[in-house]
């Protein structure tokens, strides 16, 4: 029994560590990143994963040792201890130190994604409106100014230029939603009553369609709140904008 129990815990440890190592080859890992935030976010993810792996192995080894060492029937009385000042200091200081390491390691990435000073210059390309249960993207019309009569709207699809910084304003019409594009390594909550600036840059050599999902449980239809970010080369993007403007000005009626 003791042998079996020890083997079971050992198998759990080996399988656990192996599954994380092998996940990528099974296609069960993060989707490949296609934005400028990708390398930084993935490096942070790996740093934290390595820390967790180290402590997972450490605690499992202690557990396996205890299962093996103390599962023998032993009639002697258990030794009672009450706290250890040194041990408590150690298991407080080590996690605190690790949290500090993470705090310093993430500063650059956070500043790049969220600090206003890192935002690209110029006007936002659109306002992204989240609502139960849909995404709408409001673009400035021919005058280039948002919130005027000639604005046009795109439903579900957020069309943006690839290979250059894209700034937009994230808003919500009702409850809290979350704008998330896993392949951009970007996630930002949309708060009712707030206009939140967000930016990203799709790699120039990776134009394409990327899944946009709501990452905040926002009601019964949350599951279907999916959209698409369509990153187009600059020329195609300009053509799309011109076409949308023309359609809007003609009320969709072909001449
Ligand atoms: Cu939502």
Distance between the termini: 84 Å
| Sheet having the most strands | 5 strands, mixed
Strand residue content: 15-25%
How many DSSP H or I helices? Answer: 4
Q: Which strands sit side by side, in order, in the main sheet?
A: 3-2-1-5-8
Strand runs, count: 10
The fourth-level CATH homologous superfamily of the largest domain is Cupredoxins -  blue copper proteins
Low-confidence stretches: none
Number of domains: 2
CATH class of the largest domain: Mainly Beta
Give the % helix.
25-40%
Shape: elongated
Gyration radius from CA atoms, angstroms: 26 Å
Bound molecules: copper (II) ion
SS-based structural class?
alpha+beta
Overall mean pLDDT score? 90
Describe this structure in words.
- By secondary structure, this protein is an alpha+beta fold.
- It folds into two domains: 2-70 and 87-116, no CATH class; 126-249, Sandwich (Immunoglobulin-like), CATH 2.60.40.
- Helices cover 39% and strands 23% of the residues.
- The chain is built from four helices and ten strands, in the order H-H-H-E-E-E-E-E-E-E-E-E-E-H.
- It has helices at residues 2-22, 38-70, 85-114, 234-249; strands at residues 126-131, 134-139, 152-155, 157-161, 165-172, 177-181, 186-190, 196-201, 208-214, 226-232.
- It has a five-stranded mixed β-sheet.
- A hairpin with a 2-residue loop joins strand 1 and strand 2 (134-139).
- The longest helix is centred in the first third of the chain and has 33 residues, at 38-70.
- The chain is elongated, with a radius of gyration of 26 Å.
- It starts with a helix and ends in a 6-residue tail after the last helix.
- 18% of the residues are buried.
- The model has no long low-confidence stretch (mean pLDDT 90).
- It binds copper (II) ion.
